[in-house]
Structure formats: C-alpha cells, structure tokens
C-alpha cells in the first residue's frame, strides 16, 4: 500500500481501501458472488456430491430418515441441505448453498483470529486473501464438506487463542464446544477437535492449578 501511495499519490481510491470496513465488505462481496456463480454455472459435479451427499439430502427431504444418514459421513451439511431441498430446491443447489454459507461465515472467526496478531486492516485484507484462494473457493462452491469443517476449525482457533490470553471460563467453554462441533461437518477434520479440546482442558486445568498453588504459598 505504501508503494502504491508513493507511485500514484494518496488518491481517493487508496484511502478508500485503507478502511477495514470497506475491505471486509469487499471480502463478503467476493464470497457471495463466487457462491452465486457456482449455483448458476456449476456443471462439473464431484462424484462424492452426486452419488452420496445429494442422495442423502434428497432422502432427508423426502422424509426417509433411515436412508438420510450414513455411518461413515458427518450429517451436518447433508441435513441442512435436506431442509433446503424440502423447500423445493434441488439437492445439488442446496448442498452448494450450505457449503457456500459456511465459506462466507468463516470470514467472521477468521477476522477475529487474525486481529489478535495483526492490525484490523491487515486482518481484513487477510479475509480478502481467504475468499480469493482458488482451493477454498472450490470447497465453498461445489457442495463439498470441507467448508463447514474449515468454519469450525477456524472458530476453534479463534476461541482457543482467546482462551490463551483471557482467563474467563466462558471462552474456554466456547472453544471446547466449537472443537466438538467440528466433528459434525467433516470426518477428515477429526484429529483437530480432540487436539483443541485437550489443549483447552489442559489450559483450564493448568491455570486453576497455578491459582491454587499461588493461594497455598500465600497462605503459608
């Protein structure tokens, strides 16, 4: 940004994009447009989506709950897509909307997490980089499960980082809850929830032990 300002001068457009709210708005706009384009022009459907996720969503919409769940697949995306399919949306479009919604919602915890280490403006530009990453866009616009997994992992990172700097038990509880919820959207994210939950509980226990130890020393 400093290089652009030195070359072109402090124009109105450059000042405009130094506003974090504007940059965050750009990030949301890019995410919404990307999902909208996938809904309209997604003609390359993954076999997992066509042969499995869409079938589960269709069975859920039809009320056949015995065939709407698979023991080796997480139920969150297909269940939400089934609810949309019950309203008259095709299963593929419903899956795309669900994965796209998680893709866009990840901006909230990502911004909060980045803001703990960067300036608000840099954190906002980090969200722009997130929504323009090709692989992340593919996860969010093709009905795959990874966008929901990413949402809960980033949320767990945000609350875990907050728990590392704040002593409130409520924040640690939120971190453990987000970590546990991460098991719902994608099985490949399963090593992460246990790690975050374990670290959160150890952090909570360690801080309690320190407070207790300090109290014993002071009383002695």
From TrEMBL:
Domain of life of the source: Bacteria
Entry keyword annotation includes Membrane: yes
Sorted UniProt keywords: Membrane, Transmembrane, Transmembrane helix
Regions that span the bilayer: 21-41, 80-105, 117-137
Entry protein name: Dolichyl-phosphate-mannose-protein mannosyltransferase
Species name: Victivallis lenta
Species lineage: Bacteria, Pseudomonadati, Lentisphaerota, Lentisphaeria, Victivallales
């Amino acid at each position: 940004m400093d290089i652009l300002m030195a070359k072109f001068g402090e124009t109105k457009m450059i000042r405009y994009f130094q506003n974090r709210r504007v940059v965050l708005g750009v990030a949301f706009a890019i995410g919404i447009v990307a999902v909208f384009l996938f809904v309209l022009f997604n003609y390359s459907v993954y076999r997992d989506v066509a042969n499995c996720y869409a079938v589960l969503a269709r069975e859920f919409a039809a009320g056949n709950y015995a065939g709407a769940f698979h023991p080796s697949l997480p139920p969150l995306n297909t269940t939400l897509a089934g609810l949309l399919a019950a309203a008259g949306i095709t299963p593929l479009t419903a899956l795309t909307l669900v994965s796209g919604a998680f893709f866009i919602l990840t901006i909230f915890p990502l911004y909060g997490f980045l803001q703990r280490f960067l300036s608000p403006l840099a954190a906002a530009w980090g969200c722009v980089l997130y929504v323009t990453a090709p692989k992340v866009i593919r996860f969010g616009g093709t009905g795959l499960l990874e966008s929901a997994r990413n949402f809960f992992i980033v949320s767990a990172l945000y609350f875990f980082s907050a728990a590392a700097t704040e002593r409130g038990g409520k924040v640690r509880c939120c971190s453990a809850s987000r970590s546990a919820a991460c098991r719902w959207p994608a099985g490949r994210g399963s090593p992460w929830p246990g790690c975050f939950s374990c670290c959160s509980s150890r952090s909570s226990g360690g801080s309690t032990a320190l407070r207790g130890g300090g109290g014993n020393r002071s009383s002695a």
